[in-house]
Amino acid sequence: MKKAFLLLLITIQIQTFGQSIFLENVSIIDVVNNQILDSKTIEIKEGIIYKIHNDNYTITPNDTLINLKGKYAIPGLIDSHTHIEHSAYWSETSKYNPPRENLLDLLRHAVYGGLTTIREMACDVRVIGELSRAAKLNLIPSPNIYYPSLFAGPRFFEDPRADAGARGEIAGKISWFRGIDDTTDLPNAIAQAKGNSSHALKLYALLNAEQIKTIVQEAHNQNLKVWSHAYTQYAKPSEIMASGVDGVSHAPLLLYELNKKPDYSNYPEDDTLLQNVFKAMKANNVSFDPTLFVYNHVPKRQDRSKVAKTITQKAHEAGVRIIAGTDSISAYKEEKLPFIHKEINFYANACDFSNMEALKTATINAAITLGINNETGSVEENKKANIIILDKNPLENISHTETIFFVIKDGIIFKDD
After folding, report:
1. What DSSP character marks residue 173?
2. pLDDT digits (tens, 9 = 90+) for 73-98
3. Of 6, 247, 298, 395, which has the fewest beta carbons less than 10 angstroms from its beta carbon?
4. Radius of gyration of the CA atoms of the chain, in A
5. CA distances from 362 to 69, 345, 367 (A)
6. For the whole model, what pTM was predicted?
């Protein structure tokens, strides 16, 4: 608890009620229309971007005016592939069951570092669901959290990670960790997942193409999105792309389209099969989170780093929607900022994205994938006030996303003192 108290001493959280905040003379990075809007004033009221003014606005004595001349406004960042509980562990013995204090410190670090939304990709929904509710109600400093229930073949749930996420229940036989076979009552299983407030299903491993297709159809019938690994042992990438899934993860997994023992050392000289997968992804509107950070950061995966970047570049060139996900979130005790800044840096500096394109992977593209682009992902009127104010222009250098002056999440200002 001592650490949490110290964090409160060195940070400021400002929330206003019944009044407007005016962010004056700021340059807005417009990720929808790919432009900069200079010298604008953003009016925030009750957590919403109420109006973007050119001039001629009225400020009352109760309003807050912040002059941001020379600064830049970008949308709050979205990490589309996080694992909150794994990232918050403080020792090997608690790796999959971190103390709540650690979870709160991690989420506080994330929001002060520019993350206003995260897509959690596998979790104990009893833990993450409670944090998601607290974040949505702004009871804790945290990004807003979206999370799935995980479906996989029954044998997957022999993995100790699943037991940790089930804690007190039987992994594979509960709504958020469900083992799927040909006897599963899918409408009921998906309804139970929806009933635990999951925002989507995640398909992990040991599922065949027909099972995936049936799951996707029923999930969409029940208005749940489906996110999948790009390879599930029993279904090739092309089969997964044809199933109707909304998004897939992990760039190197696409190499399983070529064979079951892929060469991670090089991108194939004949990439016809991969190009066909990219075309299917674009045609079927499948979002792709390559998770480049984890292939650069984790030693046992670094042999896949080069090919992951090439696959990402080729997918981008083919018109696939790329979304930024770290397969982690941050090393909150060791680093100043969450890993999302490094992830988007890879796109600009290793995959031939423009700085605007890289920024879009963690803003509007990610919001579209989550189905929340009508409320966040860009700095526009009538959307949530999820905004980062930067000291420097990220279109000049993508690393300038790290020059955070302050962050606004749901209209609340988070600023280092």
Report:
1. B
2. 999 999 999 999 888 764 444 556 78
3. 6
4. 21
5. 25, 11, 8
6. 0.95
